[in-house]
Specification:
heterodimer; A: 173 residues; B: 195 residues; mainly alpha
């Protein structure tokens, strides 16, 4: 009974509750709408040079990264980066040239390392002496840290590879 | 005669098919066109919705003048805000929400300034005036939270889900409030309904 009564109320509300908007409403609204300054929304065009600029920025970043990596000091025993080895050579060549602040990159890259300054049996900055050690001390911290890490890895890695290749080390299980 | 026949005929303007297209376009398509600055499309939306919106505002504010202002402001706001309208939502829900918000603003303002309501709710035209007045009077006396739901669902004809979106209420709340609103109306109209 309640349900029927409710349905009846709902039907009556639907039938009788509606109202008609005054005639002038539409005209008033449209008059206001027409008076509104309305900028047309055009689809935004991307500037044609934008992809090129993105590419150029990416290329610059990549070049900077490569240059930075190649200038990191480190040993020449690296299996992955020839740039790093030339960097070490460059550092040592610069050291041998008395600081070598004016030396060009090309000259640095072609210069030979000075083996006499490297003390065998020691790792990292301990292996350097004299002006090379001084230059390393003056180098920025990240470069120094990278050099240290590189030098520490330089000795054990080839040995490990050697052992692996000769079958002395077998995989567990 | 030959010369006259050789004269170029005046071009006859092609009949405008635009209005016909507007008639059959969905609300969302019209809203999209209106968002691009098409005033005719927006006018079509106004024509489609003005009665429903006016009814909604009138039954909430219980005042002709306030309802008129609510709907007018809501439609102009809609025109301004069509650029930000997410076209994955229903235009109907969006525009009803705006009107409800405007109506609540009116009620808040009225409460703050203690404005008296001096107008009688408007009536429709297709039912006996005395019975209608009783029902509408009973509706007007319902608490706002129940009246709003009854108006949205029963008077305007929104589904419960759409009413929930319009009123920003959970669907369960809408359902229970609608039930209670109908029960109270039935209670109020009971003596009259009895023979």
């Amino acid at each position: 009974v309640n349900g029927e009564r409710h349905d009846e109320i709902a039907a009556r509300l639907r039938r009788e509750g509606g109202a008609t908007a005054p005639d002038r409403l539409r005209a008033d609204v449209m008059a206001q709408v027409r008076a509104e300054p309305r900028p047309r929304r055009l689809p935004r065009r991307r500037a044609p040079w934008r992809p090129l600029a993105t590419l150029a920025a990416a290329a610059c970043l990549l070049a900077a990264a490569v240059l930075g990596i190649s200038r990191l000091p480190g040993g020449s025993a690296s299996s992955s980066s020839g740039g790093a080895s030339t960097g070490v050579a460059g550092l040592e060549a610069r050291q041998s040239a008395g600081g070598g602040s004016g030396a060009s990159l090309g000259a640095v890259r072609t210069a030979a390392p000075a083996p006499s300054r490297v003390v065998p049996g020691r790792t990292g900055s301990q292996s350097l002496q004299g002006s090379a050690a001084g230059a390393l001390r003056q180098a920025p911290l990240p470069l120094r840290a990278a050099y240290e890490a590189r030098a520490r890895l330089a000795a054990p890695l080839p040995k490990a590879f050697e052992l692996l290749s000769t079958g002395h080390v077998r995989g567990g299980r | 005669v030959q010369d006259v026949l050789a004269l170029p005929l005046p071009s006859i303007a092609a009949p405008r098919t635009y209005d016909a297209r507007v008639q059959i376009a969905s609300d969302e398509a019209l809203a999209r066109r209106a968002a691009e600055g098409d005033e005719a499309a927006f006018e079509e939306l106004v024509v489609r919705y003005q009665d429903r919106l006016y009814t909604l505002a009138l039954r909430i504010t219980l005042s002709d003048a306030d309802a008129y202002d609510c709907v007018q402001e809501a439609l102009v706001s809609a025109w301004r805000g069509l650029g930000g309208f997410r076209h994955d939502a229903r235009f109907s829900t969006w525009i009803h929400r705006i009107v409800v918000r405007k109506a609540y603003d009116v009620l808040d303002r009225r409460r703050r300034t203690a404005e008296p309501v001096d107008e009688v709710p408007a009536t429709s035209v297709d039912s006996p005036a005395d019975a209608r007045m009783d029902l509408l009077e009973a509706l007007g006396r319902l608490e706002l939270e129940f009246r709003v739901v009854a108006v949205a669902c029963d008077v305007v004809g929104l589904s419960m889900d759409e009413a929930a979106l319009v009123l920003d209420l959970p669907a369960g709340t809408v359902k229970s409030r609608l039930h209670r609103a109908r029960a109270r109306l039935a209670e109020t109209l009971q003596p009259e309904a009895a023979p």
